[in-house]
Write a structure and sequence with these properties.
The chain is of the alpha/beta class. It is 37% helix and 14% strand. It is built from 16 helices and twelve strands. Strand 2, helix 5 and strand 3 form a beta-alpha-beta unit. Helix 1 packs antiparallel against helix 3. The protein is globular and about 70 Å long. The termini are far apart.
Length: 422
């Protein structure tokens, strides 16, 4: 049956047999026993499914992978140690020294640093573009060594909504992989596959877990990109001598297999069984939580918009928001729990406001059940230059607010009393 998303949140990824545990047990083991030598050899040759070492695959982690793959309508998922490792492995699977990728300026600060500072040291160039730029301007950045276009569904923290159709058209025209970080939307609010994406990435530490309890990331291969005889992706079409001459483009799941068999094998950034278990059960309530996060954030955004001490508010639920029409097109059932706003006056007033909050906490996190705030320009985006901050849409008076699932009246009351001190 084709179950709806809220049912998949609860049921996908694991089906017990008679007498087995109803939820996936924690397989807290690095290795697995085999009495049959050929059976183990077949696993190493990818001729059979199974587990032999938890650096590559683990039953508990696999249950979480199966759930996220189902939610994103993908062919497979690979759970990683963090969202950053998921982003890194995604790039390394397709790109090497001499190659380049394209990325929106408006991405998470850690992603920006990875792309702008670390990748170039490994010989991979990142060419940044304005997500609002016309199609022709972005296309000029593509050459025959471009391996990926990377974007975020909802940009952190600028709250820019991605124009999927524009980027998908570019990617299809040039036969380039289109990757989307869907962390802040989640598949409940947006399924990038429906709008032309080929790869989805999540920091599962955020809404998927939902409780700030388990660090992790996920890569989802959506199974809708053709690597076969594609001159951009020679590594998929030439034998991998490190894996018995395997040609990934000949397989049913080229990207997912290469990412796990080669990249995860060598980098070892796998999710732990404990975190896989926590993330799996966290997803059970994802649909319910996203509905509440979205409605709460909309109420808070409307309140802030009318406050005399607030200069601007960014949340796509607001009808006068620049990205409201795009949000209605791609995220009609809710625009998520993340918003940003600017306090009038000096940067010091931002600190005074945040330090005056009582219910809402100041922390380096977003997208869990508890409301929290952060000042990105002095924390997550601290390493960026003034020009980079401007390009990323992060002015110095920006406060990022992740609206939780508490009673919205209590959230607003806490903001009100804190603003009295500004």
């Amino acid at each position: 049956m084709n179950y709806k998303l809220d049912t998949l949140c609860v049921q996908a990824g694991y089906k017990p047999q008679t007498g087995e545990a109803r939820i996936p047990p924690i397989a807290q083991s690095t290795t697995f026993f085999y009495g049959d030598t050929k059976a183990m050899a077949d696993l190493f040759d990818l001729k059979a499914d199974g587990y032999f070492y938890s650096r590559l695959a683990n039953p508990t982690v696999a249950a979480f992978e199966g759930k996220v793959a189902a939610l994103e309508d993908g062919v497979c998922a690979i759970a990683c140690a963090s969202g950053m490792s998921a982003t890194s492995l995604s790039v390394f699977t397709v790109a090497g020294a001499g190659d380049n990728i394209l990325s929106s300026h408006a991405v998470y600060g850690g992603t920006y640093n990875l792309f702008s500072t670390t990748l170039p040291k490994l010989g991979i160039e990142c060419r940044f573009f304005d997500p609002d730029a016309p199609k022709e301007e972005i296309e000029k950045l593509i050459d025959d060594r471009t391996k990926m276009i990377f974007t975020e569904t909802v940009a952190n923290p600028s709250i820019i909504i991605l124009d999927f159709d524009k980027i998908a058209d570019i990617a299809k025209k040039h036969n380039v992989l289109f990757a989307v970080d869907n962390t802040l939307a989640t598949p409940v609010l947006c399924q990038p596959k429906k709008f032309g994406a080929n790869l989805v990435i999540h920091s599962s530490s955020k809404y998927l877990d939902g409780h700030a309890a388990a660090l992790g990331g996920v890569i989802v291969d959506l199974g809708n990109f053709n690597y076969k005889n594609n001159p951009r992706y020679t590594s998929f079409n030439e034998p991998d001598e490190s894996y018995h001459g395997l040609v990934y483009a000949d397989l049913a799941v080229p990207f997912g297999t290469k990412c796990r068999a080669q990249m995860m094998r060598d980098f070892g950034a796998i999710m732990s069984p404990q975190n896989g278990f926590i993330s799996f059960i966290g997803c059970d309530t994802l649909a319910l939580r996203m509905e509440r996060h979205s409605s709460n954030a909309q109420k808070v955004a409307k309140y802030l918009k009318n406050h005399p001490k607030i200069e601007w508010v960014k949340h796509a639920s607001l009808e006068d928001n620049k990205y409201h029409a795009l949000a209605q097109k791609y995220m009609p059932n809710g625009q998520g729990g993340m918003l940003s706003f600017g306090i009038k006056g000096s940067v010091e007033k931002c600190a005074t406001f945040m330090e005056s909050l009582k219910l809402i906490t100041q922390e380096t996190h977003v997208a869990d059940v508890r409301s929290c705030v952060l000042h990105p320009a002095s924390t997550t985006h601290r390493q960026l230059s003034e020009e980079d901050l401007k390009n990323a849409g992060v002015p110095h008076n920006l406060i990022r607010l992740s609206v939780g699932i508490e009673n919205p009246d209590d959230i607003i009351a806490d903001i009100e009393q804190a603003l009295q001190n500004v």
